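Example 3.2
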Amino acid sequence: MKRYIITSLFIAVVTFAPRLCWAQVTAQETIATDTIYANDTKNVALFFPEPIRQGITGSDNFIFTYNREKEQYFGLLQAKPGKESNLLIVNRDGSIFSYIVRYKAQLSKFNYFIPKSSSIGNERPIMNDSISVATAESKIDNRNYYYQKFSSYLLERKQGVGRIKKRTEGIILRVENIVFDTEELYFVIEIKNNSTLDYDLNFLKLSVETRQKGKRKSLQRLYQEPLFKYNLPSKIKENETARFVYVIPKFSLSNDRRAVLELHEKDGERNIELKISHSYINNPN
């Protein structure tokens, strides 16, 4: 009798255990995207299991604010009437959260406490405890990959920082956007060639200009070496436009300093110096 009971239990485990495991795997693979509602009269608070490192909305009629200087666990969402969009959140540990966001005049929920289990993934592979810390080379590769992906996103996103542009002889240099993320500033730059000649790029440099005080007033420039350049062209053909991104280590400017973008033509004289006020650098998107 005992042998019969043990045999029956064994058959039951063999029969139903694979189905249980498959159900667990299916539940893990199928992650539904939640919808969060917001409006322009109330703050909707989102609390995350780790401090927020980055928060991005897909449309300008949604605004997600969080502390960019000192990482905190919560952010505030507001919305204006318009089409639905999406919200992407990256925590300090690399956990990624994604939501559909919609405008709703009357809200029934103002606080969302996000569990770790609702993460849709991680921006970098999670290493086993037995694996040692990654080498410096692999860290650089991972960082450059992140710069590339985020720069590509910024070029697709239609967002501006203001009228920062200058032209000469049909060549227009414009800073379309300045975005702060983690420890870097992303400069979205546009060069438009409205002339009848191709424009061969010699160099494009960003520097900080300081006015020296005293009887002999002078200007001193300190070049900011980019950490990464994305989609930088070597030539802009006639009647064409090039858009690209410079990734610069984060910096801020006092009132007597400003940034200068220098564009130089190769074997030509159509050079442009575009001056950027300290207010744009200190208040990026």
